[in-house]
Specification:
- The complex is a heterodimer of chains A (172) and B (160).
- Chain A has 172 residues and is α+β, with helices and mostly antiparallel strands.
- Chain A has 2 domains: 30 residues; 125 residues, Immunoglobulin-like (Sandwich).
- The N and C termini of chain A lie far apart (83 Å).
- The longest helix of chain A is centred in the N-terminal third of the chain and has 26 residues.
- The longest helix of chain B has 22 residues.
- In chain B, a hairpin with a 5-residue loop joins strand 5 and strand 6.
- Chain B has 160 residues and is mostly beta strands.
- Chain B has one domain: Sandwich (Immunoglobulin-like).
- In chain B, strands 1, 3, 4, 7, 8 and 10 form a 6-stranded antiparallel beta sheet that branches. In chain B, strands 5, 6, 9 and 11 form a 4-stranded antiparallel beta sheet that branches.
- About 3% of the residues of chain B have low confidence.
- Chain B is elongated, with a radius of gyration of 22 Å.
- Classes of the chains: A alpha+beta (172), B mainly beta (160).
- The interface between A and B is large, with 42 and 62 residues.
């Protein structure tokens, strides 16, 4: 009886092996490698600058002096560049036959030195480009800029207009 | 006696079927990708960017077959370690539920795992267009500018 059980086990083992081998021969490995698709992605340097407003106004209704802009400007920057810098510069304000030079427009950013250059502590004349924000790859970084205008008795009454331009430097 | 009988039956089964095995010819299965390379051009703020579509053409002698694709090397910035993971490379096929949105728009799923792209049966002597695939890349602000390269492998499963 024991002998028969052993034979039966041997038979089962042999049968299983045979079935496995047959299956392997008939079906093989059912997963086969096919072609390969080459993928390239070109990511361009990108910097996104948004301003909270596209116009500020100095209402100079009194005697000549220092006047604040009607609102602050929030500058938001997003960039994928390793290092980036945003600068701003002002053009002279031009009216009817008269001009207010850009050095009489003043800017204050949170990190400007707290010295008084003629328009209050922390305000710097916009006679040259000013760095307003710098950073590394980020979805959004922002700063708040305050502007002031210094008027004199020589400034003819009227409406003056100019531009504050924002530029950036980026190093991927 | 039983042992001899079992050995005999086993060999009978083995050799009896082996003739069937050797009677089979190797079935043909060919897959052609057109084009065989794709590119994404991320030229604006981070978001989703599409490549050109890829047609999968199959010629098969198999009764049942299916083609799958899977990213085998992540998009890697040349000469640097920066990578765009598989999870941000998406595919659209007719086998994906068009209502599903996994972050790159409806009908797109990431190829962080094998995806079925085509299936069918005997095609006869002529190759057939089995599928048209769309690929989409999701970029982020932290992806450093530059050229990234990677590979997607296609594999097939068959049943003679």
């Amino acid at each position: 009886m024991k002998k028969n059980i052993i034979y039966l086990l041997l038979f089962s083992l042999t049968l299983s092996t045979v079935i496995f081998l047959i299956h392997k021969r008939v079906y093989g490995d059912t997963s086969h490698p096919g072609p390969v698709l080459q993928v390239t992605a070109i990511i361009e340097p990108c910097i996104n600058i948004t301003l909270s407003t596209n116009a500020i106004v100095f209402n100079c209704k009194g005697a000549p002096g220092i006047y604040n802009a009607d609102q602050n400007v929030v500058v938001r920057v997003g960039s994928n560049c390793g290092n980036w810098t945003v600068k701003c510069s002002a053009t002279p304000l031009k009216g009817d036959g008269a001009t207010i030079p850009s050095e009489r427009m003043f800017i204050k950013a949170p990190d400007t030195p707290n010295t008084d250059k003629g328009a209050g502590k922390g305000f710097e004349p916009m006679s040259a480009e000013k760095v307003v924000l710098k950073g590394s790859p980020t979805e959004s970084k922002e700063t708040i800029l305050e502007f002031r205008l210094k008027t004199t008795w020589e400034d003819k009454a009227g409406t003056y207009t100019g531009q504050i331009n924002y530029t950036y430097l980026a190093n991927p | 006696m039983v042992f001899l009988a079992s050995i005999f039956i086993s060999f009978l089964i083995f050799f009896g079927n082996s003739y069937l095995v050797y009677a089979e010819t190797d079935p043909l299965m060919s897959i052609i990708l057109s084009p065989d390379s794709i590119s994404f051009h991320a030229d604006s703020s981070p978001g989703t960017f599409d490549s050109q579509p890829v047609d999968v053409t199959v010629r098969s002698d198999y009764k049942d077959w299916s083609v799958h694709c899977e990213a085998i090397s992540p998009l890697t910035l040349s000469k640097e370690k920066n990578k765009i993971p598989f999870e941000r490379l998406f595919i659209n096929t007719s086998y994906i539920n068009p209502a599903v949105d996994k972050g790159a728009g409806p009908g797109y799923e990431s190829i962080d795992q094998p995806r079925l792209v085509a299936k069918g049966s005997l095609t006869g002597p002529m190759a057939i267009k089995a599928s048209s695939l769309k690929f989409r890349l999701l970029t982020k602000w932290e992806d450093k500018p530059g050229t990234y390269v990677g590979q997607i492998r296609f594999t097939y499963l068959t049943n003679p």
